[in-house]
Structures are given as structure tokens and as C-alpha cells.
Amino acid sequence: MSEATGPSDAMISAISDLWRLRPPGPDNILAYPAFERLREACRDGYPNAGKKGPAFALSTALRALGLPCGLQKETLHLSLPVEEAAKDLDAALRATHAKRIHLVPLDLAADLPSIAFGSARLGRPTADELRTLVDEARLKRLYPRQDFDAARFSEFHWLVVEETVALEHEPEARAVPVLFMDLSRDLGQIEPHKGRFPVAVEEALFFLLLAPWESWSTMAEVDWRGFRVPWVYTVDSDIFVRPNTPPSPDTLSWEDRIYDDGYGGTYEEERPVELRLEDDVATELPIWDQSRWAIVEQAKQSVLFETPITHFLVRAFLAEGVDEFLAHITTIEAALGLRADYQKSFRVAPDRHKRLRATDKMRGRVAGLLGGRRYADQYEWLFDLRSAFLHGRAMTAISTKERVMARSLARQVVEALILTTQAGPISSREDFLDGLLDKGAPLL
After folding, report:
1. pTM of whole model > 0.85?
2. Do residues 332 and 411 lie in contact, with contact meaning Cβ atoms separated by under 8 Å?
3. Predicted confidence band at 344 (pLDDT cuts at 50, 70, 90)?
4. For the chain, which terminus, N or C, has the lower number of CB atoms within 10 Å?
């Protein structure tokens, strides 16, 4: 490959010919001579373009750049000039990394202060800011009949998470990964700790969930959460990857509100539904800033977080009904439980608490970590509810109080572990949990 950067003459010539095509273009753009020449230019000029050069990936990229024959009459003005399209294609073929922007709508959120942490920020972006984030021109080139309604979306709060990812595969594999799938592997296997959303988003959610939303809630019987996350929309800077269709604001929660117009009449408008929070959120949520993010990220590197604590706390937030409750109890067990509690062969001598049942060991650790028997009693109560459900015993509905108690206890346990890591390195999770039991057992 030449040391010179920028598109080759062959690339510019092929794109020029493609740009002269008028709508609707050839039936099969992949077989059109100019497209085949462009594919060859990509194959011959870029070592990571694949042995045959990109095909479906190249078609996607050209449409993202505004291939005129792929546009509608009303969007023809969005086509990039040939030179600019060639320059962007050249840059995409040379790129080793891409930027992904994850747009996370905070459905049901009331007025929240803006905060920033890590590569994330929480706020209420304007319509124009949202249009920039989703790359509206690119969306309109690819989906001319579908609109990203930035004006309506701007009435909601958003969590915006950015990440940079390495481009480890050729463009075609990124565009159509199913064609490059290893069919010899077990396609039905379950990845036990795979999240519902991208890892970067769930890490940001975990951080936000350390805030006491259940204490700020004014309508715990409706929901202790301060917001819900129905979906995540990801914008990938890699033009070989076709973006998903733009979401609709109708997937979020709206209600009609009637107002007095001041002249004896009324008017009606549609507004987002909000879960009202205590006024304290305005001064307390900003504490979840970059400095606290650094503390949490450091804590997650500790042996105390080698179990899936983060996974279950986020699962509880995303789950519904009894699954939410069970996930909160499992968060506590992931944080403070040991395999040795149930399997004697894993116990390390000397076993100072061999006469304690597994549940009593958990109670002792909860008391030792949080500093009081009442926390151990809360855990015992909640664990009994959990056991009644799992073992089919007769049980009544889980009350709002119990639901919120499970959330609060799980959050406090995780928060306490994070603060513990600030005191210094912990060499052994087993020794640390035994120490907690030493402190908590006398309180039982």
C-alpha cells in the first residue's frame, strides 16, 4: 500500500461514475461495473478490506454517504460531493477505531440535575443536540421515510454514553456478522453474565443505581425508581455498519395535560409522564460526579467485586415483579456469600464459624458490614420471602415496603463494599468476609 494518504484516483473515478446514476439506480448495485471497480480499489488499496473487498458493507457505506440513486427526491440535497464522499470512504477504510454513542432515554424521569461521569452524561439535550448525536443527515439518507422526532424526544432526560471500540474485523464482517459466524460453536449456549444493553451502558447504570433513588421517590407504591430504560439506541461512527431504524417517541410514556388559559378557557397538551422525586435529588444527585466515578471504578477492580455484583444490581433495576425482588437478594448473596458456606470442602482452616448455618453467616456479614443487627434482621426477613417463593411455600404478595427494603439493603451493601476498598487493598475476599462475620456474629 502506498505511503500517501487519501483516496486513490481509481476510487474517485469509480465513485464519480456511481454518483452519476439517477434514482432508482440499477436493480443490483453490487453487480454494477463502477461498483465492482470501487470494490477492487478498496481491496487493492487497503490491507484490512478483506480478500475480495467489501460488498454489502460498501453498499451500506455509499448510501450513508449519500449515493444519489439511493435517495428520494426530497433528500437529494443530502448527497455529499464526490470528493468528500471519497475522502470519508478512505478514512473509514483506514480507521482502526470507531466511536459509539449510546442514547439512553430516561423514561418517567422528573426534573433531574445534569451530571457527568466517566464517558457518560445525564441531562436534557435540545432537539438540535439530539439531531447531531444521531447524525440526522446519515439517518435520512438511509431511512428517508422514517423520522427521528428530535423535538418530542427533547422533552425527556437522556443518559448519553460514549465509547471507543477497536475495529478488529474487516468491513464486510462488521456489516454482516452473521456471514462470518463460527457455525462450529454452540449457537444455543447461554452467556450467564451477558447484559441486556451494551457493557458501557450497564456500567453507567450501575453507577447511577448506587444513588438512593428509593429514598428520593415520592411514589414508592408506583415505582421506587427515578426513571426507566425501555431501550438503548446506538449510533456507530463506522459507516460500514447500517444503523437501526430510528425509534419513535411513542415508545416512551406520555399523558395529556389540561391547563387553564387564563381567559376562562382551557388548552390541552401532551407531556411526558414523570415520577416525582423529593427535592433532595437536586442537591444530592450531583455528588455522583467524576470523582465518585473514579472511586467506584477502582473498587470494581478489588477482589470484593470478582463476583457478579454489578450484573445483579442492574438486573434488578431492569426486571419486573418478583424477578426484581429476587435479583436484589441475589445481589446481596453475590456480595457477601461464599461457596464454602454450602460446601464444606471449600472451607479454609481454621473455620471459626463452622456451627453457623449459611443463612446465619450471611446475616452476620450483613450486620458486620453495615454495623447493626437490624440489617441482619432485614436480610433474614427478605431471604425467608425469597425461599418461600423458590420452594413453593404459601406466601402473600410482596409488599411495597418489602420491595423497597430489598432494593435499599442491596444498594447499601454494595455501597459499603465500595467504601471498604478505600481503606486499602484487600488480599483475600474469603479473609475479608470472615472478618465481617467476626464483627457481626456477636450482634446476632
Report:
1. yes
2. no
3. low
4. N
Cβ atoms of 136 and 148 closer than 8 Å:
yes
First to last CA, the chain: 72
Q: Supply the angle between the helices 358-370 and 321-336 in degrees, to the nearest 10.
A: 80
Q: What's phi and psi for 35, nearest 5 deg?
A: -65, -40
Single-letter residue type at 261: D
Q: pLDDT category, 348, cuts 50, 70, 90?
A: low
The x, y and z cell numbers of residue 19, run together, are 454518483
* DSSP-derived 3-state class of residue 334: helix
As a whole-number percent, the residues of the chain with pLDDT over 70 amount to: 96
Q: Does 3 score more than 80 pLDDT?
A: no
Find cell 413453593 and name the residue.
392
In whole angstroms, how far apart are CA 373 and each of 8, 364, 407, 440?
A: 73, 8, 18, 8
- Sheet hosting strand 97-106, strand order edge to edge: 115-117, 120-123, 157-166, 97-106, 233-236
- Give me the pLDDT at residue 432, please: 94
Query: Is residue 295 within 8 Å of residue 423, measured between CB atoms?
Result: no
Residue 66, phi then psi, degrees to nearest 5 = 100, 40
Say if residues 104 and 232 touch (Cβ distance below 8 Å): yes
With cell 447531531, the residue in question is 132
Q: Which residues of 80-92 are buried (b: 16+ CB within 10 A; e: fewer)?
A: bebeebbbbbbeb
Whether residue 179 contacts residue 279, with contact meaning beta carbons closer than 8 Å, is answered with no
Cβ-proximal residues to 334 (8 Å cutoff; 6+ apart), any chain: 307, 308, 309, 311, 312
Residue where the block lists cell 456500567: 203
Q: Which of 119, 108, 63, 51 is nearest to 89 (CA)?
A: 63
Distance, CA of 277 to CA of 218 (rounded, Å):
5
Residue 350 has pLDDT above 80, yes or no: no
Interatomic CA distance for residues 435 and 441, integer angstroms: 10
pLDDT per residue as tens digits for the range 197-230: 999 999 999 999 999 999 999 999 999 999 999 9
